[in-house]
Amino acid sequence: MRNIAKIIRLSKPLHKLAYLLACLILIGAVLDLISPILSKYAVDIIGAKISGHGGTINSLIQLVLAIFAMSLISTIVGTLTDRLGDHFAGKLRQFLTEKFYFKILTLPQTYFDSEISGKIVNQLNRGIVTIQSFANTASNFMLPTIVQTVFTIALMAYYNLSIALFTALIFPIYLTLSYYSTKKWGVEEVKKNKIEDYTRGRIREVIGNIRLVKGFNTQSREYKTVSKKLIDINEIYARQSTTFHIFDFLRNLSLISVLGIVTYIVFYQTFNGLLTLGEMVLIIQLLNQARRPLFAMSFILTQIQTAESGSKEFLEILDLPSTELFDKPYPHNYVKRPTIQFRNVSFSYQDSNIVLKNISFTINKNEKIALVGHSGVGKTTLINLILKLYEPTEGSILLDNKEYSQLTHNFIRHNMSLVFQESELFSTTIQENVAYGKSDASEKSIVQALKLANAYDFVMKLPKKLHSAIGERGVRLSGGQKQRIQIARAILANAPILILDEATSNLDSHSEHEVQTGLENLMKEKLVIMIAHRLSTIQSVDRIIVLDEDGIADQGSPKDLAKRPGIYSDLLKYQLEGNKKLLQEYDIY
Fold first, then answer.
1. Domain boundaries in the chain?
2. What is this structure's pTM?
3. Following CA atoms 536, 538, 544, 546 in sequence, which dihedral angle do they give, to the nearest 10 degrees?
4. Average pLDDT value for the chain
5. How far is CA 412 from CA 36, 459, 531, in A?
6. What fold does the segment set 341-415+498-509+523-589 form as a domain?
7. What pLDDT digit, counting tens, does each position of 121-155 carry?
8. 207-216 tens-digit pLDDT
9. Is 499 helix (H, G, I), strand (E, B) or coil?
């Protein structure tokens, strides 16, 4: 019950609604007991009439009308309770989903680097579904059952203590068997959830990389992988089912044994005149009411255990430390002519080697620099540090002579526009994607941004022009078109710092030429930081910073670095040699 207790504490804003629900449940439990009591008096009147000791038809009619009225009121209260219970469960679902989503948006980038997105979504879905199901069961069934059981035993004890004690004996036996049953179920449920997280995550990855899967003809392998995991899940479920039904047989055996004894005592005492016919009818009705929660006890405990295990990873994510408070206010003005400084910055991922070592440099106002180096030397990591997606292990970063530690994530990124190597687009319309960083932009400014990005012409040829949906990650557009939409988005944002992460590396020469036109418009009067493997795209920068495993290996203008021996001149030579061979092969050189 630890996780459920934590959920109850988390959902404090809903406690007033829960208290109102509890009051209705209490009233409903009391009303359910009034009809059996009135039935007892009705039977006694009939018995008195038969034996010639009194009893009038008017009294009987009044009791019958009272039973009908109590049943009607009980039905109304029950309906209100169920409706309020559904409302409470829906509110709880909304509250916990918002809580989870808020937490996800505040987690550090390092968390997403080590997790599969499909797994995160599955943990959210499972946590929410199991918790909502538990809340529905608790409000519409579990709590009414428990309250009614207590009242039933208490009322039974009022009329006959021995029968009440025997009836109460069923509950500890039944609960003990149910406890061990659900405990074993819960252990297996945790194993099943882990396999299910992997399976759902893999399915999501395959769908996201469906062209790769089909391109390498691995559909059969992927199908068999998921099928094997589903078989493993079913094997665990089979063990759970076997255990449940064994314990369920033992529960029912104990139930019919004890109830058989209680029924004999009721009939025996009635036969010997120790109970009236009305009291016998009342006790039998109370016994039937006591049976209902017992039959439901295993279901209730299974729901509790399912909610416990299903919410485990959900709550673990909520317990992770938040590093980015995106709702924190920040100044929305831009830094004019900003500078960026790195002072002895080092960075390493958790439990891994150092990626960046003692990096120091300054990017001046409106300066355009490029980061060059072999793969794996930390170019993208350096960009992530500038975006404050990562925090330096050592050293400090400054924006406009202010320490990053003094600036919010929001403010830093507000001053930066991004164009990624991968097409970071949503499945919505062209207009929404271009205006993603500036949702209040007018259609006129969006059109202007598309023109500057050299994207307007192809957008106007689309069926719905600006309002054309582009599919998941822009699948309905070509590589060059997707990049130009990204550039239009950055142009519209018009932040003073521009980051280009391999913005043209995936394009053919024609597309690169069209994108380059947009980039030239985008880079005007901005501080620009770019990563590029095609050295031809960075010849117009002011400075190149060359990185290797030990940090900054060299820096200077493209012309200076090309003339002196080093990593840059070697890379340039390799690319030029490759082009030269190609030209010679076709007798062009």
1. 12-318, 341-415+498-509+523-589, 417-494
2. 0.69
3. -50
4. 80
5. 70, 32, 20
6. Rossmann fold (3.40.50)
7. 777 777 777 777 777 666 666 666 777 777 788 88
8. 776 766 776 6
9. strand
Measure the CA–CA gap between 571 and 548, rounded to whole angstroms: 13
Q: Please indicate whether residue 474 or residue 283 has the higher confidence score (pLDDT).
A: 283
Checking DSSP bridges between strand 354-363 and strand 340-348, what pairing results, if any? antiparallel
C-alpha angle 90-301-85 in degrees, rounded to nearest 5: 25
* Calpha distance 482→455 (Å, rounded): 9
The residue among 25, 28, 56, 33 whose CA lies nearest residue 139 is 25
Strand order in the sheet with 527-531: 416-419, 497-501, 527-531, 368-372, 543-548, 551-556
Percentage with pLDDT > 90 across the chain: 4
| Closest alpha carbon to 486 in 425, 529, 428, 542 | 425
Where is 24: in which H helix or E strand? helix 15-51
Tell whether domain 417-494 is in CATH 3.40.50.300: yes
Residue at 131: amino acid letter: I
Closest CA to 111 of 390, 426, 383, 315: 390
Q: In what helix (H) or strand (E) does residue 402 lie, and over which residues does it extend?
A: strand 402-403
Does domain 12-318 match CATH 1.20.1560.10?
A: yes
CA distance linking residue 11 with residue 577, whole number of Å: 65
User: What is the crossing angle of helices 479-493 and 443-452, to 10°?
Assistant: 120
Neighbours of 565 (CB within 10 A): 9
Cβ–Cβ under 8 Å, residues 355 and 348: yes
Q: What is the mean pLDDT of residues 88-106?
A: 82
The tokens for 48 are 């008195």
Token digits of residue 187: 């252990």
Q: Do domains 12-318 and 417-494 have the same CATH topology?
A: no
What are the DSSP E strand ranges found in 416-540?
A: 416-419, 497-501, 527-531
Residues 196, 130: Cα–Cα separation, whole Å:
15
At 337 the three-state DSSP class reads coil
Residue 211 class from Cβ within 10 Å (0-12 exposed, 13-18 middle, 19+ buried)?
A: exposed
Q: What are phi and psi of 545, to 5 degrees?
A: -105, 120
Please give the pLDDT value at position 298. Answer: 58
Rounded CA gap, 452 and 6, in Å?
Answer: 53
- Could you count the other beta carbons within 10 Å of the beta carbon of residue 230? 13
- Could you give the CA distance from residue 106 to residue 381 in angstroms, rounded to a whole number? 19
* Better pLDDT: 362 or 184: 362
Cα(18)–Cα(87) distance, integer angstroms: 10
Distance CA(64)–CA(56), nearest Å, equals 13
The pair of three-digit structure tokens given for residue 434, joined into one six-digit string: 């271009």
Contact (CB, 8 A) for 345 and 395: yes
pLDDT digits (tens, 9 = 90+) for 190-245: 888 888 888 887 887 787 767 667 766 778 888 888 899 889 989 998 888 888 88
With a pLDDT cut of 70, the percent of the chain lying above it is 86
CA-closest candidate to residue 297, choices 135, 133, 139, 142: 142
Burial class from Cβ neighbours inside 10 Å (0-12, 13-18, 19+) for residue 60 reads middle
CB-based contacts of 458, cutoff 8 Å, min separation 6: 481, 484
Please count the other Cβ atoms lying within 10 Å of the Cβ belonging to residue 96: 24
Per-residue pLDDT, averaged over 20-27, amounts to 83
Three-class secondary structure of residue 9 per DSSP: helix
